[in-house]
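chain below, 390 aa
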Amino acid sequence: MSTALADIDTLTESDHTTTGHSPVPPTEVAHAGPKGRPEGFDAEAFAVELDALREEVLAARGQSDADYVRSMIRLQRRLELAGRVALVAGVFPPAWLLGTGMLSLSKILENMEIGHNVMHGQWDWMRDPDIHSANWEWDNVCPTVQWKHTHNHMHHQWTNVRGRDADIGYGVVRIDPEQPWSPSRLFQPLAFLGLALAFEYGVGFHDAMSHSAQGEQEGRSSVDRVKETFAKIRRQVVKDYVAWPALSIPFGIGSVISSVTGAAAANVGRNVWSFSVIFCGHFPDGVTLFDLEDIEGEARGDWYRRQVLGSVNFTGGPLMDVMSGNLDHQIEHHLFPDLPSNRYAEIGPRVREICARHDVEYNTASFAHQIATVVRKVVRLSFPGRPRWA
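prediction:
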């Protein structure tokens, strides 16, 4: 084993606070428990079992995990290069389709299985500066620093808590029947579709918009965040639509057009897929939303329980694992956001068994079923009233 791998470190609570890493659940304390704790639920025992599972995986990290993430990075970069090269010959439709497909796959891999998980600090223990959450800037218009604040710090800490988790509908879609209805909601199926097609832009401005809604804080205004996002958009546009197409100029205008349109199609494909995965992880039928009073006095076991009830898994096998960034195991990811993503499928059955013994519902179904219930919910909640199933 290499020196770097031998020097494995476990992130402390202060590490998470200062670096924007995944949140650490609260320390177990003795109290009656929050309002949302059901009678008979042993929060301390639930936490002890899940903590033990986490520590077991932390202790087992090693060369095979490092090899996994490095192989994913190599695959992603080769797919991107092959896709860009194929688009040079994109005046021939089969080459355009092949190039666009490979570029789409590379962007999906970079965002889902690599970038998202690197930014959670899942690979920081390797002490490799090239695969470290402090240094990674992903292929997306959302600045890394903003993603780590809104996603890692706010969403993962306050999962599905009304008034704290800005990811509930992303401020665009009424996904919660408790949200007030207005006539503008009649158009939310169109907003839902638009957000899917341009998801990276929704994510890109999400931190600034949610920050504005909650008030200025943390020393960086919403205006600063918007400027930051526009700067990242400029870099992404130059890369996809100027720099790479410019390399096609010697091969003619057809190749330039192919490079531009292929990159645009790949970005849309990545957006729709990542949107679908993320919405499937939190908004299908059966997911629980919480009020602030439900979590007041929340202990470690209660926090774990909320992560399970506020998250949803979907099935699909090894290929789905990689393509979704292992977020088909959203429950395991929310319980242990800083564990290597390739471990989620391995520990899933044990998490499910622990939940069953503690009578904590573990929501899983096929991808088709979960996305269908999300679409039904979006359409139904575009109208006034409370659905029977809400």
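The radius of gyration is 21 Å. Residues 1-20 have pLDDT under 50 and may be disordered.
thats it, cya
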